[in-house]
Amino acid sequence: MSDETESNKGNEDQPEEAQQATATVRLKFDVKEEMTRLLQPGHEFLNLNPFDVLKLPFDFDDYTLKRHYRAMSIAVHPDKNPGVEEAQKVFDIVSAANKTLSDSDKRKACMAVVEESRRRINEHMEKGYYTNQENGKRMVDPEIVIPVDTKIARERAERLMVTKLFVENKIRQEELERLAQSHKRREEEQRIHQERAKKFEEQQQQHWEQGRDKRIGDWRNWQEDGSKKQKISGLKRPVLKVEKRSEKDKIEPVVPLPTNKS
Predict the structure, then answer these.
(1) pTM of structure
(2) What pLDDT, in 10s, does the model give residues 16-34?
């Protein structure tokens, strides 16, 4: 559990630099709690939200980012947790979140997600999703159940909505990548087919060119030998012969028997 709240108690009257120095020393994270949180079921999607990974408010500054990252990375560092197999994985998750928010372009994209989440929350409020129903709770999304009109409820709704938008963006990105790969694969198959067809045509043309001299020679030999004037032999018109029969072979005509008519 974070001790950030306790570290700020009693330091309100100190200069800002002194407060930051004190807070830096006292900010600590429980190793087991953080590992359990960052490896909970569905963490592949939940950890897409870098704000939640580093436990940062949406209006954080560079100092707060460095402070949270330093404290959390030290807590889950593999060297600090020898023999813990999950330590490296959790450390990579924390490092990836810090890398995302440290990059100016990616940070702007993350803040755009936050603004979109606030817009959707305002739209839900206009539609009456925050009215007092069912003991002060109303279903906004399947993942979001929020009490009525409180600051804590608003912040919780925004954080849940931000996570949901990060997941939607990830799914959309994977779908676009899948479509791009499919399109690329079809183009590659078409290119291979065209290359094979072209190669086949070239081979056919090459064989035709190679046989040209032989065809010309055969044609000339045929003309010289006079094959065109030669008659086809071996086929004769059949000769009809009259059949001759002896007296013995002649067949007597059949005489019909008389019939009795009544």
Answers:
(1) 0.58
(2) 544 444 444 557 788 889 8
